Amino acid sequence: MVEIKNLCKKLSNRLVLDNVNYNFEYGKVYGLCGPNGSGKTMLLRAIAGLIVPTKGQVVIDGKVLHKDVSFPPNTGIVIENMTLLPQFNAFDNLKLLGDLRKIATDDDIREALKRVGLNTDLKVRKFSLGMKQRLNIAQAIFEKQNIILLDEPTNALDEDGVQLIYDLIKEERNRGALIIVATHHEEDLREMCDTILNVSEGRFYEKQTVH
């Protein structure tokens, strides 16, 4: 479980997360819906351990971030403008990442790339924006991560790519992963999520149960 407890984050005297409280459970997909600047990406960054709260806590399976652990273990992340190494192909990029933890096999990498529809030996520098987005999503799932945080995962994808990501997210949920998706496209969330949390001015102001 990921527990958000009285979470606040202030940047330049502006409160971008305002006393957020929520419990996220494994085996479910949660959607954060709100306009740019509403705080949804900042919440993902807080859960990922990329920012330190001004007040409050993020607790991952009973361990407090920035106290018991520096980063949430076994977590896949696609947040904002991620860039992988342009001089390598998709497989080699994931292989280099995989060497850090030595959890994923070569077959795990190939399977993740197949699932996102990247069957290519092209170098990343020759990728379209949609191909780069597919690779970013592959790096968030290839180690069978328990927690998956996705910021605008369907950006730059064509219709087939969008449906592929919908299906992939549902498969990850069925595997038991906890998935949090942030987007301003509410139609995406209704297709993918069990619960939608509407975000405005750093707060949750409405919860919708979808499935």
What attributes does this structure have?
single chain, 211 residues, alpha/beta, six-stranded mixed sheet, four-stranded antiparallel sheet, 6 helices, 10 strands, 32% helix
Describe the structure.
With about 210 residues, the chain is of the alpha/beta class. Helices cover about 30% and strands about 30% of the residues. The strands form 2 sheets. The protein has a 6-stranded mixed sheet with strand order 6-7-8-3-9-10, sandwiched between helices. Strands 2-1-4-5 form a 4-stranded antiparallel sheet, with helices on one face. Strand 4 and strand 5 form a beta hairpin. Helix 2 crosses helix 3. The protein is globular, with a radius of gyration of 17 Å. The protein starts with a strand and ends with a strand.
Give the fraction of residues assigned to helices. Answer: 25-40%
Q: Helices and strands, in N-to-C order?
A: EEEHEEEHHHEHEHEE
Regions with little confidence, pLDDT below 50 for 5+ residues: none
> How widely separated are the two ends?
19 Å
Average pLDDT figure: 89
- Number of separate helices: 6
Oligomer state of the chains in this structure: single chain
**Proportion of residues in β-strands:** 25-35%
Number of strands: 10
Helix and strand composition category: alpha/beta
Tell the overall outline: globular
- Rg value: 17 Å
Give the strand order, joined by hyphens, for the main sheet.
6-7-8-3-9-10
